[in-house]
Amino acid sequence: SPFEAMCALLPVIVSSEMTAAQIVISNTLGIVTDQYADALMDVFLHPEKYRQMALTSAVWVQQNLNWDNFCGQMVIVFERTIQAYNR
Fold first, then answer.
1. Which of 28, 25, 16, 80 is nearest to 52 (CA)?
2. Nearest to 28 by CA among 70, 60, 1
3. CA torsion angle for 14, 21, 23, 69 (degrees, to 10)?
4. pTM listed for this prediction
5. Cβ contacts of 38-46, under 8 Å, gap ≥ 24
6. Residue 44: helix, strand or coil by DSSP?
7. Would you state the pLDDT for residue 54?
8. Distance in angstroms between the alpha carbons of the first and the last residue of the chain
9. What is the distance between the alpha carbons of residues 62 and 7, in angstroms, rounded to a whole number?
10. Which terminus of the chain has fewer Cβ atoms in its 10 Å neighbourhood, N or C?
11. 39-75 pLDDT, tens per residue?
12. Which residues share a beta bridge with 14?
């Protein structure tokens, strides 16, 4: 999982076909590509850039992918569903 790698402070390279790709792109959490060799070379040549990205990614995961946020969003969905049903 790319999010587990982010928590381990590792650079993330994912395929454009992966379901997490849009989250990675929109939050600048890693590289989304189908050219893996080029991406690996970029990580190798620019370690500080990807070290910083990994730190940012770990913080993003901690702030956004936690149980409080997940459950909070589910409560909102449930409340909207109940309201729509009761109309």
1. 28
2. 60
3. -80
4. 0.76
5. 39/13, 40/13, 43/11, 43/13
6. helix
7. 97
8. 41
9. 8
10. C
11. 999 999 999 999 999 999 999 999 998 888 889 888 9
12. 32
> How many residues belong to the chain?
87
The two three-digit tokens of residue 69, written as one number = 């946020």
Using alpha carbons only, what angle is made at residue 49 by residues 61 and 22, rounded to the nearest 5 degrees? 45
- Cα separation, 87 vs 12, in Å, equals 46
**Cβ-contact 29, 60 below 8 angstroms:** yes
CA distance 8 to 50: 13
